[in-house]
Amino acid sequence: MKRLEFDEKNNLADVLKAIQNEPETEIEIYIFPGSEILKDSANKSVIELLAKQLDKKIVLKGEEGPKQVADETTSKKEGKEEDEHGFVEGKDVAEERVGESKFSLPKFPKLKFLKGPRWLFFLAGFIGLVIIAVILTFWLVPTATVTLTAEQKFKESELALIASAEAEEVDVDKGILPLKTLDTTIEDVLETKATGTKTVGTNAKGRVKIVNRDTKNKTFFAGTTIKTISNPILTFTLDETATISASPAGCIADCKETAVNVTAKEIGEKGNLAAGTKFQVGSVTDTTKVVAESLTNFTGGSSKKITVVSANDQKKAKEELLEKMEKKAKEELEKSNPGIVIPEGGLEPQILNEAYSKKTGEEALDFRLSLEVKFTAKIFSEEDLINLMIGSISETLPSGFEIDKEASVVESEILEKGDTDLKILGKIKASLVPIINTDEVVKNISGKDFGSTDKYLKSMNSITSFEIKLSPSVFRIFGTMPFARSRIKVELVQKE
């Protein structure tokens, strides 16, 4: 047992601080005569209260002040003395003692009151109350929040796992998770812009004469093409069949001919040719034998570009809406089944209904797509996954660190699909935090001055910085941490 001694120079605060700083749990406190510490019974109560809070056993020894006990009367009253039998000289031996009873009350010591003005006693009492109030204020009022900041560390790992529909429970050694199937049906609509373009218009029309200088009859059926001889090469088709008689040999003028209507094969203004334009007819390449010539100016050819719904527009709209619906289906399944994991690629869509407001190639500035899709999900327990992943790296953690399960992130993706199971790749980004006994920290800083507290906290491994918030802030001027351990809170955060 450790012995601590205090004399008249010491006060109550010295005793309390010594108890606080003494590592021993059993302490003998000796107060020298002349000290004012134990003359006030409230001081003794405060000392015992502090010892109880610190889980320490103390023994108080010393002078507790003069005991105001009256001296017992050792001599008889002046007068005649009784003999050993109770007789009094000069009185009748049979005379009964007046006022004597068979039983007598216990004797109490007479109190000796201190002499002096009464106001001194009131002043002493008031000072004692003030001291008690100050001590209780320091004990009960101040609170401290100590925030310890540790450098953020992570450990990443990947592990191949099997999610099996035949498994009923987790097999840690084999890396097997129970697999379940859920489904949900989603309906949604997407409106989007059309980006396709198309040229539309009318075909130029006109009338040509076909001249036959050959000595053989010529017949050209409806649909036969004629092409301009000069650039640009434009193609027209005969609207009806044309038959031309043979011409005499060596005919140059007044050769056999016939007139026929033609239509440009392509739309656009470029088909509006001038009268007198020469054409090659059909497969006859020798224009000295057969040639066509426009009789009038061709007219009616026109063109313009319009916006239409393209096949690519519909494809993109479908992909975008499916992605949106898949996300919605996943959220609904996770909300109605908390604690599940749907691995990447674990949702299979089945389109039940697909409808577009505009067909491919139809003129439109925008269009709408409506889909009804049934999503089937392959799922397993998030708790099972994170426990398997943490277990796979727990033996390789750096010394003095542990995994913060809540701050760790796990992911999974499907590697291979089977009939009743999935081969998946589990991934973990484990958040590592220092192993710190917060109760031990509180024990080592309670009641200590700021200098000692600062030195202790800086000596802690893995802690990069710390912050102390004292409330009410006015108690900072005393430079001391709260004495009551219950008034100190220690938090651990990670630096991002």
Automatic annotation (TrEMBL):
It comes from the Bacteria. Residues 66-91 are annotated as: Disordered. The chain crosses the membrane at residues 119-141. Keywords: Coiled coil, Membrane, Transmembrane, Transmembrane helix. Residues 308-335 form a coiled coil. This is Baseplate protein J-like domain-containing protein. It comes from Candidatus Woykebacteria bacterium RBG_16_43_9.
